[in-house]
From TrEMBL:
Protein name (Swiss-Prot/TrEMBL): Dehydrogenase
Domain Gfo/Idh/MocA-like oxidoreductase N-terminal: residue ranges: 5-123
Domain GFO/IDH/MocA-like oxidoreductase: 131-284
Source domain of life: Bacteria
Organism: Actinopolymorpha pittospori
Molecular function as annotated in GO: nucleotide binding
Length: 385
């Protein structure tokens, strides 16, 4: 089997993801990088060999005859880079969020439909073992018919990860409700089998402040230090920050399920918790793949029963994000070669962005209700038919 020639756009914090596609002689090989940063070129060559092509010229990269490419650039460049790849006939792995506006997502869907190109979205949480097990249990009827869902997202490293660089500016990411919430909203949609129709949100920046700017070594260039606490003591943050560090959004899904998503960027712990309540029980995760992660199911009447009626322990798996990263890359490579159904969905990714954008609009307008715009039915039929 001839190796697929794989390129990478942007070799930064998510560069390790693309490494799962470097399997010379086994079906795929990383052969090229586009990145304006010369230091990224050095890192790429050091890891994948001196014979790879590295360039700061996007047109040159597009002309290399690639079979597929990973778009791992910053969020505000996703649309531009994915459109260029689709126009060049190159299959696309597009890291989430799909784009930073609903309109940008729709342009990508229409471009993929018109070109017949293969557009794959990097919502790797759909491949995380605890999410997949929750999906299996819900679909099996373990809690009856789902009616209510919520996610609490404790972003314990919010200051280090999201308020020290471009993430802190609306012009580059719209909001952290979109940037971080795209993952969780997509999971809520997937577990509930529907997309958001109406949203109402509120939020604010309650802790981080532009005065926390100044010079400090970014966390990813030094030893990750859990002693960087409390959040108000952090320095080296982006003085242009204008996004919220707390966001809460209520959603009514198209199938009538009520859902909510709460995100806080100054908690002492870092994980997310999903609760789905149905007509015959509820299900909840504790842990996101770390040792001791367990899914608990309640399906009998109780007063207080912290351990639930049934527990499903999950073992550790190798690979980033609890083993999800190697799984999602394997699915993408299969899709490039064979096509067919995938667990991730461009339409679902679009609705996750649309719900996040609608939530940001609502919270910044005094919590007014906002209708999530529908995707073009013809486009939905093309991708999901």
């Amino acid at each position: 089997m001839t190796d697929l020639a794989i390129g990478v756009i942007g070799y930064g914090l998510r560069g390790n993801l693309a490494a799962h596609a470097h399997r010379p002689g086994e079906g795929s090989r990383l052969v090229a990088l586009y990145d304006p940063d010369a230091a990224a070129h050095d890192r790429f060559r050091d890891r994948f060999g001196s014979d790879v092509t590295t360039t700061a010229d996007l047109d040159a990269f597009l002309g290399l005859g690639l079979d597929a490419a990973f778009v791992l650039s910053p969020d505000y460049l996703h649309e531009e880079h994915a459109l260029a790849l689709l126009d060049a006939g190159i299959a696309v792995y597009l890291e989430k969020p799909m784009a930073i506006t609903t309109e940008g997502c729709d342009r990508l869907l229409e471009a993929a439909q018109k070109s017949g190109g293969r557009l794959y979205l990097g919502h790797n949480m759909r491949h995380m073992p605890f999410v997949r097990e929750m999906k299996r249990l819900i679909d099996s009827g373990a809690i009856g018919e789902p009616k209510v869902a919520w996610c609490r997202h404790f972003v314990g490293n919010g200051g280090d990860f999201y308020f020290a660089d471009w993430h802190a500016e609306r012009r580059y990411g719209t909001s952290l409700l979109l940037q971080k919430g795209a993952h969780d909203i997509d999971v809520l949609h997937w577990l509930c089998g529907s997309y958001s129709r109406d949203v109402t949100a509120m939020g604010d920046r309650m802790v981080y402040d532009p005065s926390q700017g100044g010079e400090e070594e970014p966390w990813w260039q030094g030893e990750r230090n859990l002693k960087r606490w409390p959040p108000k003591s952090l320095t080296g943050l982006n003085p242009k920050m204008d996004v919220e560090d707390v966001s809460m959004v209520h959603m009514r899904l198209q199938n009538g399920i009520l859902a909510s998503y709460e995100q806080c960027h100054f908690t002492p712990d870092y994980w997310r918790n999903y609760t789905i309540i149905g007509t015959e029980g509820r299900i909840e995760n504790f842990g996101n793949g770390e040792p001791g992660t367990v899914i608990r199911l309640w399906n009998q009447r109780h007063q207080y029963a912290p351990d639930g009626d049934h527990s499903v322990p999950l073992g550790e798996e190798e690979g980033g994000h609890g083993g999800a990263d190697p799984r999602i890359v394997a699915e993408f490579l299969r899709y490039v070669r064979e096509g067919g159904a995938t667990d991730t969905s461009p339409v679902a990714a679009r609705y996750a962005v649309a719900a996040g954008c609608a939530g940001a609009e609502s919270l910044r307008a005094g919590s007014v209700p906002v209708r999530v715009p529908d995707a073009n039915p013809e486009v939905v039929s093309y991708f999901e038919g």
